[in-house]
Write a structure and sequence with these properties.
The chain is of the alpha/beta class and 700 residues long. The strands form four sheets. The chain has an eight-stranded mixed sheet, sandwiched between helices. It contains 30 helices and 19 strands. The longest helix has 21 residues. The protein binds 3-hydroxybutanoyl-coenzyme A and 1,4-dihydronicotinamide adenine dinucleotide. The site of 1,4-dihydronicotinamide adenine dinucleotide has 23 residues, from helix 12 and helix 13.
Amino acid sequence: MSVVTYEIKDEIGIISVNYPPVNALSVHVRTGIKESIETARTDASRAVLIVCDGRTFIAGADITEFGKPPMSPSLPEVLATIEKSQKPVIAAMHGTALGGGLETALACHYRCALSSAMVGLPEVKLGLLPGGGGTQRVPRLTGVESALNMIISGNPVPAAQALEMGLVDRIFDDNLLQNAMAYAKELVDKNAPLRRVRDITIEPSSIPDGFFENYRTQTTKRYRGLLAPQNIISCVQAAVDLPMDEGLARERELFMELMTSTQSAALRHMFFAERTSAKVNGLPKDTPVKQILSVGIIGGGTMGGGIAMNFANAGIPVCILEVNEEALQRGMDIVAKNYGITVKKGKLSEKAAQSRKALITGTLDYNDLKDKDLIIEAVFENLELKKQIFAKLDSICKKGAILATNTSYQDVNQIAASTKRPEDVIGLHFFSPANVMRLLEVVRADKTSDEVLATAMALAKKIKKVPALSRVCYGFIGNRMLRFYGRESQLCLIEGSTPEQIDNAMQSFGMAMGPCAVGDLAGLDIGYKAREALTDEQKGEPKTYRIADTLVEMGRLGQKTGAGYYTYDPATRQRVSDPKVMEVVEKVAKDLGITRRKIDDQEIVNRLIFALINEGIKILEEGIAQRPSDIDVVYVFGYGFPAYVGGPMHYADTVGLKKVYDTICTFRDQHGEAYWKPAALLEKLARENKTLEQWAAQQA
Ligand code: 3HC
Ligand code: NAI
């Protein structure tokens, strides 16, 4: 069946797009729309409607075509054909009219929408700008500032707001096709003019002096390191300064510049990575999924409370079990405080916060968990304690309940073995703060059933998390890799760097925070306590942890004690360098016989990031992760890795595996094989001159 059909009904030419799942503007859709408009030029229709079948109006250009040779007709050609039509063309939108979809509507002469529709230009999230005239037409309709806010945030707006902004002319509550046809007839009956957005001019004198400079300064601060917002500002400025056709040409030029950038390639990679990570290789499509209508959480501490909020936010009642009233109250208070902050920020109404809080109850009695569909254990990180709890859950919970652990490191197989139903046991590893971080590492133990796994993946979507599947190993995907990143930051520090240099270098690379600042935020005592449970051999060489231990022993636990790698102003939490830290660093280096040297920023970035990459590739070799892009999902959604770099695996491909391999070999020659043994798969792919993406495609 054709993806675009055209027919005349009651004197209205109706162009219907039917290209599931989201009616993206593939070459077939573009061709179909253009040909239909050309047909309408000479037929008996009096006006033309563009509508879409399925769940949404056109949701944008077809992202799978990006990076490939362009295919005619281009979107600008199609839109020019629509705009030039001598009969009014009306877009009728439902679902999400995004990117090229909204731009198609903006090239029409009139626009109507269902009240439930959302419209937006999310291209910036793909490292792009609207390349179908969006940067020229939106400011002509909404004014420059609203246009900039909409295009640079990339966030869609509801139809009612779009109406107020001037992007939409008419809204209906239901029966889109019928109402849109009536609207089209009304327009032709009253001989409504062919309203072309291009004919509007923006009066330059309406823009305050210095407006664009100020906007650019704010944007540079807010969207650190990103190219697309900068190019968007240039395009919108062109909408003011240049005639339409020159503005469109400028938009095209800056769009193509972004399309060929590594930032956009990375963000497009992340778009598909996020959607692929929920797919489990080999899991039959018809695997049944259990209903999760009630949840129990054991342990209402830092993680338990945050995890509970995710379920309450999705309307699922959740009961937290604690050891005593005091601990329970503490947990409930943290939940209440977190909701309070969200309300204060204006992101949630007081009423909604109250109803969500009402879904979270507390108990000290295991019997209250016996009918729950899912239990998530989030008690202290202690294997014996977790095993005891799972044995107890096994004796109490109803048949078929899913028993999950939020453990960061412990062996989920051993935890499962403490029950008589290991097939129902799984790891659901949330990230802190659990109500904010979008990653959910789903840990598949040896005996976890397909049904439990499929349910966990579906549940992640329901609670708005991005799942990534891991097999069992120490630290799973994320924390296992992070140890090597942490090791290198400690080594750079002791060998010659400072906390400021390391953090600045990593922030310039794009990390949300550098490793020393992250340590201070999380609390340096966490790592200290974890090391206490290890043998000397497990801990590794003192140079990899002695500085951190010394700071903890001095009472410098990080932000919570006002000092760690930095000192913190108690009022503002602003960090300040502290010479005492460098005294510690220099003394520990001297005690351990290390002569400090000058280390440059690039070495810091390479050592920290290549350590992540090497371990990530070992994780792939071992089958712990299903695919490289899942590792990227873990790092972007769980560890603040910059999405515009695309995660460590995509970054490795961008740098080139041969270069990564050669650099790791140089590190091995300098620092020894114990730290820098190149992954065998890295060596193989480097020799074959292949990328991880090519390797993944072969495995699929
Ligand atoms: N091109 C190609 N495939 C797309 C696509 C697009 N624009 N948008 C979504 N898809 C695919 C997804 O990859 C997914 O495929 P899969 O089922 O094989 O994994 C499928 O459609 C369904 O997508 P979601 O799982 O995301 O479905 P949701 O219902 O949750 O969300 C959506 C729907 C809101 C439309 C969301 O998919 C979305 O935000 N899509 C991207 C929209 C976008 O960025 N548009 C701008 C594109 S760039 C552009 O238009 C340039 C122009 O200015 C020139
Ligand atoms: P926490 O110390 O803040 O909270 C643990 C809670 O469990 C406490 O409130 C305690 O009273 C309760 N508890 C202890 N024994 C219990 C029992 N027998 N029955 C019921 N409740 C009990 O710890 P946190 O940080 O919340 O960690 C919990 C788990 O989550 C650990 O396994 C940890 O590794 C994991 N995790 C922690 C992350 C973090 O950043 N804090 C991130 C991801 C996972």
